[in-house]
Design goal:
Structural class: mainly alpha
Shape: globular
Number of helices: 7
Order of helices and strands: HHHHHHH
Number of strands: 0
Length: about 150
């Protein structure tokens, strides 16, 4: 019985720590990193505007981000921020035709939009709010362009 009690207490403490870590505010270095990554993801809009949009545009926007985020960024920024970028990368990888990319990229991009709405909450650093706005504009454009097509392929 004592082992069960200790295991239960340990599980409770671990869950509380995870919740606190995921709901933290941006640290200064994490805000800058998140913003830079988001602006790189938003660059897809510029590629479309100047006629250079390709599958590669989607592919390079997220190279190496997901594994790096999990290892280094968890606990340094809110969950919505990590979730938004992970959803964007799943969608972009699907649009790029990468192995493991989403089969329904617009679903992921729409989920990212819901997460990005949290960027307007009080306490969000200005550079994060600006980057989230640029990324939102890009995602809305991509979704609009792909929604009428089977599987949201552009």
């Amino acid at each position: 019985m004592r082992k069960l009690y200790v295991a239960g207490m340990l599980a409770t403490a671990t869950m509380a720590t995870a919740v606190l870590a995921g709901d933290t505010q941006f640290t200064p270095d994490a805000a800058a990193t998140w913003s830079a990554r988001s602006l790189l993801m938003a660059k897809v809009y510029d590629d479309a505007a100047d006629g250079t949009l390709t599958k590669r545009s989607f592919g390079v926007a997220c190279d190496g981000i997901t594994g790096e985020q999990i290892k280094h960024e968890y606990g340094k920024e809110p969950r919505w921020a990590l979730g938004a970028q992970l959803q964007v990368c799943a969608g972009y990888d699907g649009l790029a035709g990468k192995f493991g990319g989403s089969k329904k990229p617009c679903v992921n991009l729409k989920a990212a939009l819901k997460e990005l709405a949290h960027a307007s909450e009080p306490g969000t650093p200005p550079e994060v709010a600006d980057a989230a706005g640029a990324l939102t504009k890009t995602l809305l454009t991509v979704i609009e362009a792909g929604d009428g097509k089977r599987g949201c392929k552009l």
